[in-house]
Amino acid sequence: MKRKFWSLVSLALVLALLLSACGPKATPAPKSIKIAILGPLTGANATFGASNRDGALMAFEEWNAKGGVLGMQIEWVLGDSQCDPKAGADAAKKAIDEDKVKYICGAVCSSESIPISQYANEKHVVQVSGTSTNPKVTVDDAGKVKPFTFRVCFIDPFQGLVMAKFALNNLKAKTAAVVLDVGNDYIKGLAEFFKQAFEAGGGKVVVWESFVKEDTDFSAILAKVKDANPDVFFIPAYYDKVNLIGAQAKQKGIKAALLGGDGWDSADLDRTAADGGYFSNHYSPEDTRPMVVDFVARYKAKYGTVPDALAALGYDAALAILNGIKAAGVDDPDKVAKAIETVKFEGVSGMITFDPLHNPIKSAAILHVTGGAVKFEASVAP
Amino acid sequence: MKKSRFRFLGQSALFWLAVLAVFLVAEWIVMPRMTEFRKVGWIIFPCIMAVIAMGLNLIYGFNGQFSLGQWGFYAIGAYAAADVTYRFAARVTYPVQGIVFRLPPVLQRVIPMAQVELFHFDAGKSALLLGAVLFGGLLAGLISLGFGYIVLLRLGSDYFGIATLGFTVMVQVLLINSDRVLPETKGARGMIGIPQMTSFFWAFIFLIVVVVVMRNIIYSSVGRAVMSVREDEVAAQAMGIDTLRYKVMSFVVGSLFAGLAGGLYAHLYAFLSPLYFDFVKSFDPMIIIVFGGLGNMTGTIIATFLWALTVEGLRIWLPQGFEAWRFVVYPIALLLLMLFRQQGLLGRRELGFLRAPKWPLRKTVAEPIPEAAEAGAPKEGR
Amino acid sequence: MQKTLGRFTLFLRRRWYIALILVLVLLWLLNHARQNPQLFAQFVVDGLRLGFVYALVALGYTMVYGIVRLINFAHGDVFMIGAFTAYYASTRWHWSLIPTMLLAMVVCSFLAVVIERVAYKPLREAPRIAALITAIGVSFFLEYFTALDFVFTPNFISFTPLPIKFQSWDVAGITVSNIMFIVIGVSTFFLVLLYYIVYRTKLGKAMRAVAWDKPTARLMGIDVDWVISFTFALGAALAGVGGMLYVIVYPQVRTFLGVMPGLKSFIAAVFGGIGSIPGAFVGALSIGMIENLCGAYLSSTLRDLIVFAILIAVLLYKPTGLFGETAKEKA
Asked: ipTM of the predicted structure?
């Protein structure tokens, strides 16, 4: 009986070794362009990943219907990065090493895009992010631009400035409370940019409280906010935390207007918890530009819902990659990266061109949460 | 044939040759056929986990102290080592050219590389890595000495486990707030920019050293004392064994191993996040040693590799869309194991090199020395 | 009560440095209270609300440990299932508060009994580590299985609409809400009910007997298996109520909901003396208060650190917790 057990164990081990030896064989010349779509498909920010994927897929399928790019069809691979640095790095590794992609459309959150960009740059894989807004995604700590990483959205210094100006000028706010997640580059960065701009404009940040991703109980923080009685309450978090904080804030009777960033943009944003709030975003589905109207109609026909900014930007990021490949003329990430630097096209969210830091110059839309819906409020140009 | 008296670290020449052989087979024959993702997840990372598991086995399997603190020391070792290399990596470099052998095509069927390089490494960076990892281990050891001594004085079994669980959580919280004191660790946002220096060589070396040290400890009077504490503390004390001393000793040694493993881990993924070192994951090494058999060194090593294969392998083998099922399969396997084979895979049996050495047995009846008997007879000769 | 207070003062008098630390902390708190009394009162009230929710869960941990010496790691996930049940009952079928609560209790009790019969009972004679690993396995399974798309969801869902309409009042500068009263009221009701069951009924006597000495209880004619299952069910019912209350106060459901509250409640149970029912209650209220005051006056990110440091300090001086039984186990 024991012998049998041992032979089974050794068999398992040998099999394991053999299986690993059955690695990738020499790959023949690829017949399709492989692109990975990375984003949080499950977890706290699942709508982000789903929208990003849907937008990108629409772009890929449309181009495939017109013959693909460079005569080859586009093949895609999905990865779930869960808006987390480690999961993002793992998903990128799997896509690059196992699935052998050469281009990445994603990721969504800056906290996952930063480690992904490190790995992608090492492995010479082009990465175009739709919605990662933190400056460190395209520029490393030493200040050098990462040659293979781009984004098609504005960056947080601009976003923080937009919301600060809106608070100071439109809402006539003098004091603000800020609550931020210390574990997230995007949230922390946006909070700091807002604070800088708000105080530069004469305002005063009276409450500055940090929390961690796992926190659900905000009573202590909110009691402090209520006590300080600020004019506005800036919550630059993702929609899942905004739902929690907003609901608890309403429970506490906090009357200050809630402000936020593009992390609010989700169908799962609790409209009652965030009622009366304003947030900055990359586009508004109510925009009357023909490109937008057309996109919204096609997206609605395909998926049945109105596209949010993440879908629009996923679409634009995909377009950036495809246009870059077309301009370069070859399926070679080094050349495509160079090509993308000079590419110029009209995306759903605006005209896409890249500055020396691989960021586009775009304007922001401010959306207002009221009456159970999200409505367009204003547009702010850089 | 007389056995050679050559001993290094207490082991014979044959042993070290076998180690070298395993290393070369893995490094030249198995690993070049694997993708980066599999290499790291199936071979290098399990070596690191095995070190932690061996440490925990010493603390719990052999000494009977239920500790959940391994993960906390793992974190300490990781961050300490990462901090050292982060500061100095750019400055130390001393490349050594080594010897390069071009491989004839015949050999290339087995060793799928164009050439093998011997002693081609960067002496400066290697020394830095070694120093950093040792530093991480020593720091973990020192902290465990302080903490262990205070806690083991008063607490036993379950409560000790709870205290160590508390330690792990406290370490995590401290690391989340670490950017207030050490800004390069970036606190909860995760430390990036750590040089990726852990290769199979380092993980393997540390694993072998830990295995040898463990074996030498266990099969000595120290080891016997340690095990006696597990079996019956009162009886051990009655036999004159200072139980506190051995409890602290095993705790420190086990935690030191965890610290070393942490140092290696930090340089494996080049990214560290305190959210990875949460208490839920601190059960992983516990699960591994129970899986392999408590107090069984070979079992631990085999179990670590099987565990890694399951968790990482399932990620690849499950069809796309079903990746989430691997965390459903894993606990079911665990449950089945506990229900049907509680003593773990190997129970108490050790294999091969880790078997208990055959000490020479004293004969129970003293035999008369032949010469004396002969000399005695003629002398007697009456 | 007198005796405990007496023992405590004696303890303080012997170790003057602890008394000093306690006095300093108290003074620091009182200073803050003096500066802004309404805010301080608000913090205390919120802390109590949190503590009552923890108490419901902590009782489950303490009862199960008392009776089978098992740390039931899956308890936090039973709590999560209760929360999800409340969410679905309230949002899909629009049930009101009491029916939702009853449903959560029933579902959780049933689940706990199933878990006990399938996973824990076969291991009752096995070494404790096996049962512990099994508990961990069950916990993982519940968390990840419910995260599959066809079961619950891997995402974070906002709990709207709540089964009760929210109302709040300002009392002397402090905000109190109907939810808070419901939490405190429901928790107190169940705590009193539990106390009654355990200390005033024959069933409770059987439970205490089994906790004290299983073989002898069997000899006395008690159906030990049934009593153990009932204990699990009772603890789980309370956890179900706790789950419902938790997601009403913090309206977001997700499958990993139970991890942190489970840990905190477990710590609370240990702090108060695991195996002791009043201990779990006191421990939970204390932990809730400490957590909130810490988040208030120190930093939200350092909360867990302080809670665990206090726990370890208490354990060092009284290894079995505040109200714990004096160490019965073999040295």
From this structure: 0.88
